[in-house]
Amino acid sequence: MSESVKIKNTGLRGVAVADTKISYIDGEHGILIYRGYGIEELADRSSFEETAWLLLRGELPDREELKAFKDQLIAAREVPGFIWDCLRRLPAEAVPMDILQMAVPLLAVADPDLKDDSKEANLRKAARLIARMPVVIAGWHRIRNGLEPLPHAPSLSHAANFLWLLTGVKPDREIGRDFDVCLVLHADHTFNASTFACREVVSTRAHIYAGIAAGVGALSGSLHGGANAAVMEMLMKLETEEDIPGWVRRQLEQGQRIMGIGHAVYKTTDPRARVLKDMSRRLGEKLGQTKWYERSVCVEEAALGELAKRGKTTLRPNVDFYSASVYHMMEIPQDLMTPVFAISRAAGWCSHIVEEKFGEAQEKPALYRPDSEYVGNYCGPMGCSYSEIEARGSSSGG
Ligand SMILES: CC(C)(COP(=O)(O)OP(=O)(O)OC[C@H]1O[C@@H](n2cnc3c(N)ncnc32)[C@H](O)[C@@H]1OP(=O)(O)O)[C@@H](O)C(=O)NCCC(=O)NCCS
């Protein structure tokens, strides 16, 4: 075998694979910034549309730029009819993240800029993806319930329009704004698994839709975007549980993970979780549904206490822990919670794809191509001796 020295690591943790100007996390101190701006300030003062522009372009837009971008997103909301025809043929039980992952290349088919790989064309494609992914998810939810997708409401923001398309009810100002804040909070998060998947795919010069479809696939897993739905499942299961601390203890004793707790980068509270925890309490009070917040706090306190007893003092709630109850109170079904994460993260994914394709002075090779350590059969440089199928015996022993 080759004697060359290989650097082995676990899941690329701590390995910087590229330069980026898009976002930064200080995991020790619980800091997240987008293009230099702190996440708390963006959550407090910005909108999803403004944040998406910031991520894509690098600077906050001026008034005209923001108006033009909002108009561009509104104009791009219409989804081609053939996509609805395809979705109508699918079984209602289909997993919504699979529907979203399938719809992304269908959206590519309808994009007039598909073959133009210039930066401006990629920014136009990014706007279409950001505008249409929520429309697809809301439309799919209606189709699977035997309803027709609703026409979008041009007067509504990106966030409020999604809730309208999903529920058929125009959200009040506060809920529309809360959902807008959720989209801001989830819009980017450095080189997590799905963002890296997007960048890795387009590093081959594949188009933006191929990258986004890979990102959706990576986000679907329960250790990544799927955790919010798992948190909601847990909160619902605990409806009849009188001893939540005891349940948490038993889970940990059985080697189970408490969903929504812990993070690969944050070693303290995820700053997004702080904003969402407050939102969960406030929404619960407004809607008369404080039980979700109270149950979440009970799980959090019990989990942190039990984990600390096991020497795990850095595990804290992540973004998924309180977004679960927030989304539930916004009437977003459990299996749409991860797609909702995806429609927000589309802004970050597209920004990373544009940076991957056009970034200036990036310290990275043209194409990602990691190495691996081969630990399989090795019979010398000539390989193992190949035997004919008749000579291999039978696994069933017959
Ligand atoms: C997100 C996550 C995968 C990051 O993990 P990581 O930094 O790679 O750390 P590891 O998976 O190696 O876990 C480190 C230790 O903490 C424990 N741990 C991590 N998260 C835990 C959790 N949610 N509940 C219980 N134990 C947990 C692991 O079992 C491991 O223990 P060990 O050292 O005794 O084997 C992990 O915290 C997790 O599975 N969380 C729950 C899923 C979730 O909320 N995902 C959304 C992330 S935004």
> Based on CA inertia axes, which overall geometry fits?
globular
CATH class of the domain at 228-327: Mainly Alpha
Number of helices: 16
What can be said about the biggest beta sheet? 3 strands, antiparallel
CATH architecture of the domain at 228-327: Orthogonal Bundle
Distance between the termini: 37 Å
**Into which percent range does the helicity of residues fall?**
40-55%
Low-confidence stretches: none
**Strand fraction:** under 5%
Which sequence of strands runs across the widest sheet?
A: 1-2-3
Structural class: mainly alpha
Small molecules held by this entry = coenzyme A
CATH fold name of the domain at 228-327:
Cytochrome p450-Terp, domain 2
CATH-assigned homologous superfamily of the domain at 228-327? Cytochrome P450-Terp, domain 2
* Topology order in helix (H) and strand (E) letters: EEEHHHHHHHHHHHHHHHH
Quaternary structure of the protein: single chain
